[in-house]
Design a protein that fits this description.
Distance between the termini of chain B: 58 Å
Number of helices of chain B: 15
Oligomer: heterodimer
Helix content of chain B: 25-40%
Number of helices of chain A: 10
CATH topology of the largest domain in chain B: Rossmann fold
Structural class of chain A: alpha/beta
Radius of gyration of chain B: 45 Å
Number of strands of chain B: 35
Largest sheet of chain A: 6 strands, mixed
CATH class of the largest domain in chain B: Alpha Beta
Number of strands of chain A: 11
Strand order of the largest sheet of chain A: 6-5-3-7-8-11
Largest sheet of chain B: 9 strands, mixed
CATH architecture of the largest domain in chain B: 3-Layer(aba) Sandwich
Radius of gyration of chain A: 20 Å
Distance between the termini of chain A: 25 Å
Number of domains of chain B: 5
Strand order of the largest sheet of chain B: 17-16-18-19-26-25-24-21-22
Structural class of chain B: alpha/beta
CATH superfamily of the largest domain in chain B: Class I glutamine amidotransferase (GATase) domain
Largest interface: A-B, 45 and 29 residues
């Protein structure tokens, strides 16, 4: 088979009409149900019928890349969508994923009916659900000023539920200090794997870079998800007020109309610096607003991983063998 | 617009609250939790045009609510919104009774009475009827109801005011009872074609306790008439009164020279002064004619002092000094002057014969302070001249009355005098017909075995009335040795005054025209009886003289307004008699006048008749010096249907204004609209403030 480059997963824009409104999603009380809805919605966006002919053993879909064993090509998907996807089985996966979720006080902010922390927990739960379905081992580490909970990555019955239980637990909500938790995470995460860091990253970047370097030095693949509230992005306040920092308690009296432009500029600078830092460190960075559907996060996650896997496959694919494990 | 309770406008000062809060809250205190202030710098709030407008609108609404609340509580009303209220109640028939007694001469009482009367007259409505009376010891109408109703409406008050302005208080006493009764009768008189009337009597007086109120007790007042007393607050003053105490003993002998004058000084219970001076007043000045007496009288007590007469000239007035009210400090004094009387005696005894009736008769009339009796013995055979008969007070005949004598004495009888006829023997009794034509008196001589006594006396007759007292009514000790036995069959008009124990008439009263003939059956000389030697002889003869000439005029002091009885004047002096008053005015006395009534002012009144001058003193009634206020409750206790006094005119007008304003406000109830508007503004402010708050809340993030 002349394998042509499989197309990347459909961009989120093509499937936006079928994405779940986050406000509706966040109205689901149970985190596990929310995660399942997100993942199933994500699959639906990909295959329209994720359960049809879907095997519990089948845990991964990835785009076909030239050289992949055609025995794993999903002919049905090809027949339906003219897209080439190969199936991977559980025993073919040995990805170890660590979800690092920020539960500091700044994550408790939200201008929508739900906070950034709710959104981050749902994102983390969705990723855990998705990775677990693919047969990957998923672990969890929550932190604020220090490490809160740590669940080592496993792939066994009941482990996912434990992760969701930890994520669903209300956080203490202390101040943010990325340095110490990430340093601690670097100590805990001995084996290489995927590290997904979910935070708002509203902190000085110099100390964050050092922490990320330490993590990257451990050979981990790092993915950053920045969660921001629309109010943080736009700063669309109108009435003068005394603004109070949720973490430090510091107050500032200001006219938001007058301060908006400066705020946005500085936020953009911070965002640009953060992206640059990630680029230099080879870290995948995705910025999400809590008003964006979570399926887009999964799409983005999968797309970046696909791009990364393609690069790795070109560089080191044993001929005639199956798909090399992607990193 | 007016306000019933304008003080509530002070509540509008509460608008300062929202103003202060508005100024204070220019800096916001609203806190907005935010995730991080990492990208924020301090920026003071700016008030945009919209914010400023929102704040000012809310401020204006809040201030307006407070203003409307204050306005509502201040009870606004409009005078022009409703027509004038109808006058209260029916028309009134009012009798205005104004006191003009001597006590009203004090201070400015009279001017205040005029002012009060003027205010009452001004308040009279077109349908009201008013009559004005003044009173002291009499009631004098000044404006009648007919005069009031006949006058144009706009001139009625002026008419009454002019009448009152033309008079002044007099010197008379206050007969409050007479005045109230007369005013009530006048107010109760039916007023035809006047409809329903409220009848009232308004009394303007100082209401002093010296006012006479005796006739009020038990009086039946007209049901529909009410009394309203407007007491005039008297000036606070300490008052003492001076009263002359003339000699009251009629039989007191005349003194040699002028006697000391007895005076009583009475100090009021509320007086603040105790030391006074009493002395003869110098003519034409306020000084004393001689060193006065120092008198100490504590408040509420009196003292009697004897003031020695002036050595050189007769004085007429005594002055009191040392108190605050001078109107009653001058007392006029007129020493008693004995009235000369002539008794004609017709008998044949010689003068000085102690066995004769004449002897005892001449000694039965000693001179007193009030009467000087002269017994004139005349020859019965020669009738006296008419002039002698004209001036005689009594004639005593102890001889048979000849026709000439009878003719001469009949004019005496025609003047109302009396003739005492004592027939000396039985044959002389028939001569009574000469005195009383047509009277046939028969008599026979009686000589009892031992004596006769008076057994039956008619003490109802004025001759014997002075002896009616059981202490003086015993005539049984008087023995009569001889008497005529009178046969009164021919004198049907004779009245037996006394009888002997045998039943025979002893004293008989026979009318003779205007006079009378007293017939005694026995003489008083010792040959006939013991009467001349009895203690009753002199008073009996004086009684005969009083019966003939009238009692002696003992009263020398009279009150203002009290008529002065005139004494018997000689015929020659009677025609030119005149009374000279204290002011020197001479009033001729009409013929036959028995009293002088124009005693309007205190002073000495002199009756001038020829060369004789009789003086009489006219002083203030003693009650006019009792100036303590008489409580209206005391009048109510006496049965007078009194109502509370009206307030001063200014206060009454102000009260009327307030009542009118309250009535208007109660009808209009504008306070309701103020409260409704305030509630509406509150609702509007709530809506606008809520909308602004919601808009603000939509921009605030939710933090958990």
């Amino acid at each position: 088979m002349n394998a042509t480059a499989p197309p990347s997963p459909a961009p989120p824009a093509a499937t936006a009409g079928r994405l779940i409104d986050p406000a509706v999603l966040m109205g689901i009380r149970h985190l596990e149900l929310r995660a399942r809805v997100v993942v199933e919605g994500f699959w639906s966006g990909l295959h329209r019928s994720p359960y049809h002919g879907f095997s519990v053993e089948f845990t991964e879909y990835r785009a076909y890349t030239p050289g992949d064993d055609l025995r794993y090509l999903d002919w049905r998907v090809l027949a339906r969508s003219d897209r080439y996807y190969v199936k991977r089985f559980e025993d073919e996966t040995n990805l170890r994923c660590h979800l690092l979720v920020d539960q500091s006080r700044s994550m408790a902010f939200g201008s929508l009916p739900y906070t950034k922390a709710d959104y981050a927990a749902t994102l983390a739960a969705s990723l855990a659900w998705f990775l677990n379905l693919q047969g990957d081992a998923v672990g969890l580490l929550t932190f604020d000023a220090r490490v809160g909970e740590y669940v080592p990555p496993r792939h066994r019955p009941g482990h996912l539920r434990r992760l969701l239980f930890v994520l669903d637990r209300p956080a203490a909500g202390r101040g943010t200090d990325l340095t110490a938790p990430l340093a601690r995470a670097a100590e805990l995460l001995r084996k290489r794997g995927l590290v997904v860091l979910i935070s708002d990253f509203l902190a000085p970047l110099d100390r964050l870079q050092a922490a990320l370097l330490e993590l990257a030095a451990g050979g981990h693949e790092i993915v950053l998800f920045q969660i921001l509230d629309p109010a943080e992005s736009d700063f669309d306040f109108r009435l003068p007020a005394v603004f109070e920092d949720l973490e430090s308690g510091r107050t500032l009296q200001l006219d938001p109309v007058a301060a908006r432009a400066e705020y946005r500029r500085r936020l953009a600078e911070h965002d640009a610096a953060l992206r640059e830092m990630c680029r230099r460190l080879g870290i995948s960075f995705t910025r999400l607003e809590t008003r964006q559907p979570l399926e887009l996060a999964l799409f983005e996650f999968l797309r970046r991983r696909t791009e990364r896997g393609r690069r790795h496959a070109r560089v080191a694919r044993p001929p005639g063998r199956g798909i090399a494990p992607s990193r | 617009m007016n306000f019933l309770a304008p003080w509530f406008w002070l509540g509008a000062l509460a608008v300062a609250g929202p103003l202060i809060f508005h100024l204070v809250r220019r800096t916001t205190r609203e806190r907005v939790p935010f995730s991080s202030l990492l990208f924020l710098r301090p920026a003071p709030p700016r008030l945009t045009r919209r914010n400023r407008l929102e704040h000012l609108l809310l401020l204006a609404l809040r201030c307006l609510v407070l203003v409307l609340l204050a306005a509502g509580f201040a009870r606004p009303f409009l005078h022009q919104l409703f027509p004038a209220l109808a006058p209260e109640g029916p028309a009134r028939r009012t009798v205005l009774l104004v006191d003009t007694s001597a006590s009203m001469r004090r201070g400015d009482l009279w001017s205040r009475a005029l002012a009060r009367a003027d205010a009452l007259l001004r308040r009279a409505g077109p349908a009201d009827q008013v009559a004005v009376l003044t009173f002291d010891h009499t009631v004098t109408p000044r404006v009648t109801f007919e005069q009031w109703n006949a006058a144009p409406v706009t001139e009625r008050a002026a008419l009454a005011r002019a009448q009152l302005a033309a008079i002044q208080p007099g010197w008379a006493a206050t007969h409050l009872d007479t005045a109230l009764i007369r005013a009530a009768e006048l107010a109760a008189e039916p007023a035809p074609a006047a409809g329903e009337l409220a009848r009232q009597v308004v009394v303007l007086s100082d209401l002093q306790t010296g006012s006479r109120t005796a006739a009020l007790q038990g009086h039946e007042w007209p049901r529909e008439v009410t009394f309203r007393f407007e007491p005039l607050p008297p000036p606070r003053a300490s008052n003492a009164a001076l009263h002359w105490l003339p000699e009251s003993d009629e039989t007191a002998p005349p003194t040699e020279g002028p006697a000391a004058v007895r005076l009583r000084v009475v100090n009021a219970p509320d007086a603040t002064r105790e030391q006074f001076r009493v002395g003869w007043a110098a003519a034409g000045s306020a000084d004393f004619a001689a060193p006065p007496l120092e008198v100490y009288v504590p408040p509420g007590q009196s003292r009697v002092v004897a003031l020695a007469p002036l050595p050189n000239a007769p004085a007429g007035a005594v002055r009191l000094t040392g108190d605050d009210e001078p109107f009653d400090n001058l007392v006029f004094v007129a020493p008693p002057q004995p009235v000369p009387l002539r008794v004609l005696y017709f008998g044949r005894e010689a003068a000085g014969d102690p066995r004769s009736a004449r002897f005892f008769l001449e000694r039965a009339f000693p001179p007193t302070r009030h009467r000087e009796v002269r017994v004139l013995a005349l020859d019965p055979a020669q009738p006296p001249p008419a002039a002698v008969i004209e001036d005689a007070a009594l004639a005593v005949v102890t001889v048979p009355c000849s026709p000439a004598l009878g003719a001469a004495l009949r004019p005496l009888l025609a003047r109302g005098r009396a003739v005492l006829f004592v027939p000396p023997e039985a044959a002389a009794a028939a001569s009574l017909a000469e005195l009383v034509p047509g009277a046939r008196l028969a008599a026979e001589e009686r000589q009892p075995a031992d004596y006769a006594l008076l057994g039956e006396l008619d003490f109802r007759h004025p001759l014997l009335a002075p002896f009616a007292d059981p202490r003086f009514s015993d005539f049984s000790k008087i023995r009569f040795w001889r008497h005529r036995r009178l046969d009164l069959a021919g004198c049907p008009e004779a009245r037996v005054l006394a009888r002997f124990d045998s039943g025979d008439p002893a004293m008989v009263d026979l009318p003779a025209g205007r006079g009378r003939v007293l017939v005694w059956a026995a003489g008083w000389q010792p040959a006939e009886s013991q009467l001349a030697l009895a203690t009753k002889f002199v008073p009996l003869l004086h009684s005969v003289l009083d019966l003939s000439a009238g009692p002696p005029p003992t009263a020398v002091q009279f009150s203002v307004g009290e008529p002065i009885p005139l004494p018997e004047l000689p015929a020659a002096a009677r025609a030119a008699a005149a009374m000279r008053g204290p002011d020197g005015a001479v009033t001729p006395l009409p013929a036959g006048a028995t009293q002088f009534e124009r005693t309007d002012a205190p002073g000495l009144y002199e009756l001038v008749a020829g060369e004789t001058v009789w003086r009489r003193a006219v002083n203030l009634a003693p009650g006019e010096s009792r100036l303590e206020p008489l409580a209206v409750e005391e009048l109510e206790r006496l049965g007078v249907p009194a109502t509370p006094a009206s307030p001063p005119p200014a206060l009454a007008a102000a009260r009327q204004q307030r009542l009118l304003a309250a009535e208007l406000e109660n009808r209009q109830k504008l306070w309701r609209w103020c409260l409704l508007a305030a509630l509406g503004l509150v609702a509007l402010e709530t809506f606008l403030a809520g909308r602004a708050a919601r808009r603000h809340a939509m921009l605030q993030p939710v933090s958990s």
